[in-house]
Fold this sequence. Notes:
About 30% of the residues lie in helices and about 25% in strands.
Amino acid sequence: MIAVLPAASVQYELSFPNAVHHEAQVRVTFTGVTQPVLEVVMSSSSPGRYAIHEFAKNVYNFKAMDGDGRALEVSRPNISGWNVKLGKGSSGTVTVEYTVFGDRTDGTYAGIDETHAHLNMPAVLVWAHGFEHARVKLEFHVPAGSQWTPATQLLPNADGTWSAPGLEWLMDSPIELSAQTVREWRVGGETFRMALHHQGTDAEADAYAEMCKKVVLEEGAIFGGFPKYDDGTYTFLLDYLPYDSGDGMEHRDSTVITGPVVLKNSASRAISAVSHEFFHCWNVKRIRPKSLEPFDFEHADMSGELWFAEGFTNYYGVLALERAGLMPFEEFTRDMGSAVNAVTTHPGREIFSAVEMSEHAPFVDAATSIDPTNTQNTFISYYTYGQALAFGIDLAIRARFPGKSLDDWMRAMWREHGDIEEPYTMTDLQQSLAETVGDKAFAEELFTKHIIGKEPLAYARLIEPAGLSLQLAHPGKSWLGVQRLDASAKGVQLGSAALRGSPVYQAGLEKGDEIVACDGKDVKSVDQLEACLGRQSLGDKVKLKAMTRGGEKEVELTLWQDPRVEVVTDEHLGKEVTAKVKEFREAWLATKVTGASGSAN
Ligand SMILES: [Zn+2]
């Protein structure tokens, strides 16, 4: 027999009586509790952010009551949980109350102050085991006289409250409560809303909304239309305040983008986050890797596909700006060049593949630790790695399969896996590429060698048809193999790790060691050291004296050419831009939006 209890539901009430000190008061009522002990949980991870965050650290004043307001016994099973013991003859209702602190406005945490409540739900709301699929209702009580209005992808109810169909949706639905500027437009049957909290003018907001519109159209054109947003609306939650942390986080029907942005000065830089995050409403939120489904809010979530989910999004974020006329071509090539430089010259490429870099995300994506890591020698961001892959693969497809491009592969993934009910695996990705280009061997070689394997793509050859060249970024400049040199008490200190295989690495010098003499002369400043090195030719041996953990060392090292590379245009090299190159670039970089402005309602 199952006791007849009201259907399971969860109701949240939030208020901000102490916003100035960054606190919110939360009251949660669980109805239809059938367990003798209700396991209440604060999340340890947040969708789209891969490191563990013990959000429970900011929760206090926790108490629990039954439906009649009688206190219930609470015990702590672990650092993120509260076990609430139900009394005899319980009506199945449990209410918990707590205070939560939040003073970081970004895409993961909570920022509560006099100007707003910027809430990412995993950092704010507890939930309970057994209630993952229960219907959720939320009510926000804004401070009296605050003029705060809500912007969120939560579903609105007629009475001013909000709904979410379950936990996963709830945790994916941030809310911004503030005196914000809202602009709305319709395209392709969907409503787009820009909710902007900033210190600038309405005219700046209008101009920025126009830039957002261009991005929306350009990315819609890649997929041939928009997703069906759940409430028919997609919201850009933009928070640009001097005390914000720079961040962007994708959600199903919205994105949170934050930072100390002043639109008057830096709209053209800020729009790149809009372009990146909006692409995610397809790639990662709907075209979803199976490894992230369902998302586990209590542990770190590992995915080997972030080179695609994040890296390809990075590529398209930049490409869409270029196509929409929001980024100069020189800047576009510089951006691609820096990604190519990273994957071809970083020592980490010999340690992890693109898949393994992706799996490393929980250790690097907003992860903090007090013990140092060796990432300078082991890790290339999957954003960068994936961007470089997308860039090279797009050009490879365009050259080898005329009329086809990476856009076709993205559209195929959208057709075949554009629903979280149909998440994809690595096998699906490879198969989809093979079918798109009609060449199984091409896809197999690409995945085996360059995605699962660690071999960089042949960029110098791949970029040629686009009228681009790969060249040394600092020809003739010598290179020791550290990213930072600092002046120190005794001489010049290695300010960062010795890069594996580099001259200082081979000489047995490491971060913290101080170079005190070069070529027999004392060295007292970075300039003096560089002048000494500059007098030698590449390939020369140079003697250095250093103070190290192991005592004074005399080493001899061979000066290398600075290995960094860049991508440059034919124009930059003073070469003639041929008709063939122009045609190639046109197909690749011209707007894909048909029908002029296309912003009809
Ligand atoms: Zn992203």
